[in-house]
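Slides due. Your pick:
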Amino acid sequence: MPEMIPTPESSNVEAIGYDERNEEVWVTFRTSGTYSYPGVPEHVWEQFQQADSKGRFVNMVLKVDFVGNRA
């Protein structure tokens, strides 16, 4: 798991991280644990970091375009 970045502004997402070598986004949710999303290009990771709503980005991009795996 990569170093995680806390997201105190999010009501649903506790922390996010990115493994550049494996192109994998990691998301720790406040209530349901940690999930990894493989195959995420760096530009999508950058969009995720800048998203006003991390939870909305997960639901509209990561869960739609990438298969999440519970860690």
